[in-house]
Amino acid sequence: MFTGIITGIGEVIAVEPRAQGLARLTIACGYDPDSIGIGASIACSGVCLTVVARGKESNLGWFSVDAAAETLRLTTVGSWRRGTRINLERALKIGDELGGHMTAGHADGLAGVVTREDLTDMARFTLRAPQALTRFIAAKGSVALDGVSLTVNDVADPTFSVLIIPHTLKVTTLGQLAAGDAVNLEVDLMARYLARLVEHP
User: Which of 9, 15, 33, 72 could disulfide-link to 78, CB 3.0 to 4.6 Å?
Assistant: First the structure.
């Protein structure tokens, strides 16, 4: 589990195609590699991936993950190349601060940036969600975009908007976003389970 509070920016330094549609990605990071266990979960721009190798080269820490064919097809992971910058969050441990909202790192789909409006103290993004996910997005509710926990400002199906403060723009990859870009979208877990209960009481 994660909270959508980004703890580092990683950079893809290698993408290696594997058998059966898999890809192994190696990501440079600021984490101490000795603190990363093999088999640990790290949310990479909102996609929970399992560490299969880690190390240090020229004082730079790195870890490798395997992405399955479905992950490559349904998320932005399939478009990552050497030099791609991604948001990183390590899995929660008992006693960690719960800062954002509970997320699973299971991206539900892709949201497209429709507009970006840079304001005096923040930026407003309007995004288009897949039609099947719009019912889970509500004003003042939560979403995770590329792993970043955000509060929904307005909803006008199939679009919704978020306001992003300068700190978040600076310490995550959201500051690089422009109209036409795609981001990994995870809807609120509570909304998803509530909808399931209503549909199948």
Answer: 72
Beta-carbon contacts of residue 131 (< 8 Å; ≥ 6 apart) = 158
Residue 175 DSSP symbol: G
Cut 0.90: pTM above it: yes
How many Cβ atoms from other residues are within 10 Å of residue 1's Cβ? 14
Evaluate the omega torsion of the peptide bond into residue 158 and state whether it is cis, within 30 degrees of 0: yes
Tokens linked to 198: 């209503």
pLDDT tens per residue across span 5-61: 999 999 999 999 999 899 999 999 999 999 999 999 999 999 999 999 999 988 889
8-90 shares its CATH topology with 109-199: yes
Domain boundaries, the chain: 8-90, 109-199
Nearest to 110 by CA among 174, 187, 179, 24: 187
Known catalytic residues are 2, 41, 48, 50, 68, 106, 151
Give which of 16, 130, 103, 5 is closest to 67, Cα–Cα: 16
CATH of domain 109-199: 2.40.30.20
Contacts of 89 (CB under 8 A, 6+ apart): 2, 3, 4, 5, 6, 7, 8, 42, 43, 147
